[in-house]
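User: My collaborator sent over this chain with a note saying "see what the structure looks like." That's all I know about it. Can you take a look?
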Amino acid sequence: MGRRAAPASSNRHVPETLRMAHFQDPRLTHDLEWEIERSIGVSDLEMDYHCEALSDRVPHLQVEEAYGYYSWAVEAKYTGGDWKAIVAEAAATDTARHPGGSLGEGYRPPLTTHQAGYMDGTLTTGEKYTGYRDATEICKDIRTDLKAAVAAN
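Assistant: Without extra context I'll predict from the sequence alone. Here is the result:
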């Protein structure tokens, strides 16, 4: 297939001090599973589409490797194997290959919640949101959080 191949290195040099660690998107495994489930019982042309869609969701894997995970998972689903473990492995491998490295031990990124906002919008708040506070207090907390995040990569 004539898809792109992930470069061995980034096209632009990024200094080590600016590289940030990457944590796996909580929806990645679910999205990859969805591509596998959607490809069962479809034509070869549609299977190619779902294979490419899965490959696009794991950009740090070589295309051939992503296609291999796809084929392996589809075959396991047809034969009653543990296809979800294969998908989870693909997601973990993609996350591990991110050029920013991994998070420091014990660091957990802040969580956000989403709820209905004004005029059909979405209100997003962080786990540390407590309502109105003085800007000086917020700035102090932000600096503390940034120091912890930098220390954790």
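A starting point for your reply to your collaborator: The radius of gyration is 20 Å.
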